[in-house]
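Researcher: Here's a chain I'd like modeled. Treat it as a single chain, no partners, no ligands.
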Amino acid sequence: MKADPIDVTAETLTPFAYHSLMVQSGTATLPELISDRAVAFGLAAALGMTAARVGLPAKNYRLHMASMPWRTSVFLTDSPRLLPPVTRRLNLDAEGGFQKKTQDVAKKGNLKDFFHTQEVPPYQKFTGIILGLEGFDPFEYAGEDELVIRIGLHRNGMVKLKKEENNLRAVRLNASTAALFDQELPVDRYCLHSLQLSPFMSLSEAAGRLIQWR
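Model: Modeled as a single isolated chain. Structure tokens:
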């Protein structure tokens, strides 16, 4: 079965952050990439392919990603940037309704109520590919050349995906996602357990790999 990879530019419209890198009194995101899973799940939500529910379903990345009619590469930028640290507050006492013994430890450890994050700024451009399975094209499905998805902590970030010719010659895949589908990829850079960058590979080779993730 053949499927043609779609060249896509992802441009940040608002800042976003993930808990990626440990920094003093907080975390910073990885500024040079957007993970394949962030794009895949953001796209599914934007196209109305996720179910509305009160509670989150049990985490099963293989099952959930296998149900999507696309696979994606990791999206990369040549000009990574981060904004200055932003102070955030986890307001457990007023909003969480937790017992006093929980509130008493809320100033340290994982429950620290004040912490910093560093976000990727707006107007950053990343490039990658989306591979539609069975000829599926998310842009044609929506009848648009551009789609806006939400990513980041609490889905606070907005990213515009635009279908265009980027003359990409090579992309990186996520070896951790490949492992979910019992596929083994060499790892060129270990970022996180869930984000392990493969060496650069041609678009045809990447498409051949992605189509096996079933």
